[in-house]
Amino acid sequence: MSTNANTPANTPKRKKSDRAQSHQAKSLASDTTTMISHSELTATAECACFNVRKTARAVTQHFSKFLVETGLKETQFSILSVLAQTGPLPMGKLAEILVMDRTTLTRNLAPLKTKKYLETAPGKDGRTRLVQITNSGSHMLATALPQWRKAQDSLMGLFGAKDWNALRKNLDLLQSIARGEHAP
Questions:
Q1: Host H or E run for residue 80
Q2: Triad 82, 86, 90: Cα angle to 5°
Q3: Quick one: average pLDDT of 142-163?
């Protein structure tokens, strides 16, 4: 006699501790929901962090569609672009320009170093590391630039230069406020 794999006898039983944790999580969720008013939860839709990050993800996905054939991610393109414009930079200064913590920057630099698109060297005082774009990195940037331009133009064509300039000024102001650099 064959048994059906979906019968209760063949279904793995959850441990008592799993059931207890599940019940505890459901209980906590219902307790939390009853303690928070609907209007408070609705207000979170206006969260500056959530909305800016949501938009940033959508814009990043848009640029990624265009850059995919180059093998670069948008963040990598931005790093190469900054270094091509500035020349060698200490890691701390590059992280500051990109508004990125050093750990995240190090993680983003690794594939670019592996592909030899950039290199690091000791700074003048020996304590700092300078990051600079290589000839290969400049060549990759030149290859990716037309794809970046298509992505930029497609957004600007729909959004409009006037609205973009206003948004960019507001984003700069918001960034300054968030970093504590803007006096009230």
A1: helix 74-86
A2: 90
A3: 96
Query: Could you give the C-alpha distances from 113 to 97, 110, 119, 127, 150, in angstroms and in order?
Result: 19, 5, 6, 20, 26
Conformational region of residue 99, where left means phi above 0, alpha means psi within -120 to 50, and beta covers everything else: left
pLDDT, tens digit, 9 for 90 and up, residues 90-102: 999 999 999 999 9
In the predicted structure, residue 117 carries a pLDDT above the cut 60: yes
Which residues contact residue 156 at a Cβ distance below 8 angstroms, ignoring those fewer than 6 apart? 164
**Which segments within the chain are labelled E, that is strand?**
89-90, 118-122, 129-133
Write the CATH number for 120. Answer: 1.10.10.10
Is 140 within the bounds of a domain?
A: yes
**Residue 97 domain-assigned?**
yes
DSSP 67: H
Please name which of 59, 81, 56, 58 lies closest in space to residue 145, comparing C-alpha atoms: 81
Enter the tokens of residue 100. Answer: 């990125």
Q: Considering its fold, how many domains does the chain have in total?
A: 1
Structural domain boundaries, residue 117: 49-178
Residue 4 lies in a domain: no
Q: Is the dihedral of CA 168, 174, 177, 179 positive or negative?
A: negative
Task: Note whether residue 42 is domain-resident.
Answer: no
Distance CA 27, CA 51 (A): 30
Which residues lie closer than 8 Å to 71 by C-beta, 6 or more apart? none
